[in-house]
């Protein structure tokens, strides 16, 4: 018997497989297909203080081995999530979930996170700092170490649960932001968010996405994500949840070897609704194949 | 929704760039006309959503237009090939609201879902009329198939090379109808919406990520809130549409 358990800030997960925010809704569509309690946890749809329609359509474009989305954080707002989505979710998912929080000002992050922190279904708060700061000239919080630290510190102050900061890869040096978040009190880091990209429709000779640009995900970005997890692991002492193009149990193990404690799976859920279940099911056999008896023991194992 | 492997039985060109594919597999998740399937194609990351044209036991008929590289690959597929399909996606048409003489309007690639809809309406004793809109005679497909079902079939062509000259709405004067069902390009949907005297249901298209409601890639506004074209649609009722 292999041991697939991992621990995030004192929270033990049966396995490190976590569907990523924005690719799993609130779990309902997947719970109709299989018992999603086989997952380590899942990160629900990015939540903001107020309801958001998101960007105009088209919001989706295809790339080689991946996709681009510009959904724009469509969500019903934190109050609706707490009143309707979480109670419904608890009926079919009996583990704790990750609450993904977004905002356009420090105050908004603080309010949203503090409300979700009180929910017993929530295991940890994941702060998405890839949003533009309306008070900072529209620049993303996640591209400026000072702004990233400011959000981290403010959210940390109002939350009893572990606060993990989700980093954007659209920066010159991701380790600089990672260190700033750790110093500001982050309990862990999640990386990477999507990479900014675009496609042009040849017939219309115009961008495919209504928003022109969007976030790239899928296997195309896996090596880049792995590299960033590797670099950040070298610089911080807090747990990392690795993500970006993870599709197979082998990818999960690569991420752990690079330094991740758990892994999120994003785009793969959209092309194969059973993707996460398959990864969970395959994990023990792949561990045995590579002579791994416990996942906890291999975290960062490729750093020698 | 089900994820099933289908076997390709036939794949033939009905009209330039328009192909009909018959597949064999588990169709049990397909519960209403107007639903779609999402097909995985080797070499492409995203699946390709294609509306259901007909279901007969374990036989699934799809008609698709070659519009890009994915559908180009589909057009070259040969019998015996296995395909991974997510089936039973979308809400489909509601057959309970249409009165006795529903009018079915399909334009171009919007024609296929009207076939299963016409069949199902006939089964429950309705007398549907169908208007099939094309640009020109060469593009026409399934006229005979619809007539063989025993439904009154009117063809319109924009250039007048066959049937009634003009748009689908130009044929409305020939028909007495109690309700409208519509699928086609958005300008056509809008024209039908404005020209039809009755209530109805309209099937919309959008670029999709997952096709089953998880990613919010295809959301649209309606009078009753945001809806996902893939899960809450693709069929919207006339009363809720916001143009």
Q: How would you sum up this structure, described in words?
A:
- The complex is a heterodimer of chains A (304) and B (243).
- Chain A is of the alpha/beta class and 304 residues long.
- Chain A is built from 9 helices and 15 strands.
- In chain A, the strands form 4 sheets. A 7-stranded parallel sheet of chain A has the order 3-15-14-9-8-7-6, covered by helices on one side. A 4-stranded antiparallel sheet of chain A has the order 4-5-13-10, with no helix packed on it.
- Chain B is α/β, with parallel strands linked by helices and 243 residues long.
- Chain B has 2 domains: 2-89, Translation factors (Elongation Factor Tu (Ef-tu), domain 3); 95-203, Nucleotide-binding domain of ferredoxin-NADP reductase (FNR) module (Rossmann fold, 3-Layer(aba) Sandwich), CATH 3.40.50.80.
- Chain B contains 4 helices and 15 strands.
- The longest helix of chain B has 12 residues, at 112-123.
- The mean pLDDT of chain B is 97.
- Classes of the chains: A alpha/beta (304), B alpha/beta (243).
- The A-B interface holds A 22-25, 29-30, 32-33, 45, 53-54, 57-67, 69, 71, 74, 208, 218-219, 267, 269-274 and B 1, 3, 40, 44-47, 86, 206-210, 212-221, 226, 231.
Low-confidence runs of chain A:
none
**Which CATH architecture of the largest domain in chain B?**
3-Layer(aba) Sandwich
Q: Biggest sheet of chain B, in brief?
A: 7 strands, mixed
Order of helices and strands of chain A: EEEHEEHEHEHEHEEEEEHEHEHH
* Number of distinct beta strands of chain B: 15
Number of helices of chain B: 4
**What kind of sheet is the major sheet of chain A?**
7 strands, parallel
Which oligomeric form is depicted? heterodimer
Q: Looking at the structure, what is the overall shape of chain A?
A: globular
Neighbour order of strands in the largest sheet of chain B: 10-9-8-7-11-12-15
Q: How many domains of chain A?
A: 1
Low-confidence parts of chain B lasting 5 or more residues at pLDDT below 50? none
Q: What is the CATH homology-level superfamily of the largest domain in chain B?
A: Nucleotide-binding domain of ferredoxin-NADP reductase (FNR) module
Give the mean pLDDT of chain B. 97
Per CATH, the class of chain A reads Alpha Beta
The level of helicity of chain B is 10-25%
């Amino acid at each position: 018997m292999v041991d697939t358990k991992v621990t995030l800030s004192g929270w033990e997960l049966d396995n490190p497989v976590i569907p990523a925010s924005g690719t799993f809704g609130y779990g309902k569509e997947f719970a109709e297909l299989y018992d999603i309690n086989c997952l380590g946890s899942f990160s629900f749809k990015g939540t903001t203080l107020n309801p958001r329609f998101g960007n105009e359509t088209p919001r989706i474009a295809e790339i080689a081995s991946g996709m681009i989305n510009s959904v724009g954080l469509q969500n019903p707002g934190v109050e609706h999530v707490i009143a309707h989505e979480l109670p419904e979710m608890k009926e079919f998912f009996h583990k704790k979930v990750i609450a993904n929080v977004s905002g356009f000002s420090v105050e908004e992050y603080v309010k949203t996170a503090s409300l979700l922190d009180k929910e017993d279904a929530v295991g940890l708060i994941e702060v998405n700092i890839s949003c533009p700061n309306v008070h900072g000239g529209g620049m993303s919080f996640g591209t400026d170490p000072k702004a990233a630290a400011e959000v981290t510190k403010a959210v940390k102050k109002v939350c009893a649960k572990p606060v993990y900061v989700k980093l954007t890869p659209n920066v010159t040096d991701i380790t600089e932001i990672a260190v700033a978040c750790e110093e500001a009190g982050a309990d862990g880091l999640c990386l990477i968010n999507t990479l900014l990209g675009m496609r042009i429709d040849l017939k219309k000779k115009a961008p495919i996405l209504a928003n022109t640009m969007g976030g790239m995900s899928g296997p195309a970005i896996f090596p880049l994500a792995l590299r960033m997890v590797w670099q950040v692991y070298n610089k911080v002492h807090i747990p990392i949840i690795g993500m970006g193009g993870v599709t197979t149990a082998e990818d999960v193990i690569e991420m752990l070897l690079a330094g991740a404690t758990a892994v999120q799976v994003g785009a793969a859920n959209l092309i194969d609704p059973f993707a996460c279940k398959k990864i969970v099911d395959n994990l023990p056999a792949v561990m045995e194949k590579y002579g791994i008896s416990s996942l906890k023991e291999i975290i960062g194992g490729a750093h020698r | 929704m089900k994820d099933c492997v289908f076997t390709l039985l036939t794949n033939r060109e009905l009209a330039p760039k328009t192909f009909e594919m018959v597949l064999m597999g588990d169709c049990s998740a397909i519960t209403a006309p107007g639903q779609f399937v999402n097909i995985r194609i080797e070499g492409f990351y995203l699946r390709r959503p294609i509306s259901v044209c007909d279901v007969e036991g374990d036989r699934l008929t799809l008609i698709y237009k070659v519009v890009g590289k994915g559908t180009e690959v589909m057009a070259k597929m040969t019998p015996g090939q296995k395909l991974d399909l997510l089936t039973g996606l979308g809400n489909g048409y509601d057959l309970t609201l249409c009165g006795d003489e529903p009018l079915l309007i399909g334009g171009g690639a919007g024609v296929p879902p009207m076939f299963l809809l016409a069949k199902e309406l006939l089964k429950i004793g309705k007398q549907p009329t169908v208007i099939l809109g094309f640009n020109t005679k060469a593009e026409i497909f399934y006229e005979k198939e619809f007539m063989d079902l025993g439904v009154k079939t009117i063809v319109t062509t924009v250039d007048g090379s066959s049937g009634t000259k003009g748009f689908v709405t130009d044929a409305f004067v020939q028909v007495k109808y109690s309700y409208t069902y519509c699928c086609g390009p958005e300008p056509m949907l809008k024209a039908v919406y404005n020209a039809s005297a009755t209530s109805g249901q309209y099937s919309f298209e959008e670029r999709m990520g997952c096709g089953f409601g998880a990613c919010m890639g295809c959301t649209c506004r309606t009078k009753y809130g945001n809806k996902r074209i893939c899960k809450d649609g693709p069929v919207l009722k006339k009363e809720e549409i916001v143009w």
